[in-house]
Every structure is written in C-alpha cells, then in structure tokens.
Amino acid sequence: MGATDRLDRHQPLVLGLFRIVIGLLFTSEGAATLFGVLDREAAPAGDWPFWHAGVIELVCGALVLLGVLTRAAAFLSSGAMAFAYFTEHQPDGPLPLQNGGLSPALFCWGFLLLVFFGPGAPSLPGLVRRDASSGGRGRG
User: Fewer CB within 10 Å of terminal CB in the chain, N or C?
Assistant: First the structure.
C-alpha cells in the first residue's frame, strides 16, 4: 500500500474535520455579529447587510458544523461570502491582503469545496443512521 493509498483512506475523516472547523469558525462569526461577543459590537437587528450576514453565518455555520444539510448551507454561505467580498472589500483594493477580505475569500472557497465534496465523516446524520442501524443500542 503506497503513501497515496494511506492518505486517500483518511479523506472522509479529514474532510469531516475541515467541515467541523470551518463550521465552528463561521458560527463564531455569526454569534459575534448578532450578539456582540468575542470583542465585536453587535449589528443592530435588521441592519443590511451585516445583521442578515450574521444570521446566515450563525445558522449555516451550525448546520455545516453538525453536517446537517451541509451542501445547501455551504452553498448559501459561499454565496454570502462572495457577496461580502465584492461589495464590502473589493472596492478597497484588488487583493484580499490589501482590502481586508482574506477571511471572506477563504470562507467562500472553503464552503464551495464542501458544496462539491459533501460533509465527509463524521456528521450528525451519519451518527444517527449508524445508531438506528444498530437497533438504537448505542455504543456504551
């Protein structure tokens, strides 16, 4: 078994860990925007586009984190981050390092990856299916 085969065998787990991390980071962005935590001022309720972005970040981030409706939540998140990049950051310069848009650019492409590759493993639906297939006995 070659090195590539050993790496390929772990793709679902590593993809799942990537999904969990990006979901957690996105959820924290939404929580900071909506609730004024993590050294950020809360956006006023209904304020366009920041409050709405916070709702997308919180809800879709949590869905991605759990692996529930991952592709749909990642699609919406990727689009929201593309919108944020081009409307809020791009006018300040052509490159993400110049315009402060590194975070939205990375989120946009990371979520697009999840749209095409799915949630990986583990995910909440996968754990529920596994428990149901074992007759609800659980693992311990």
Answer: C
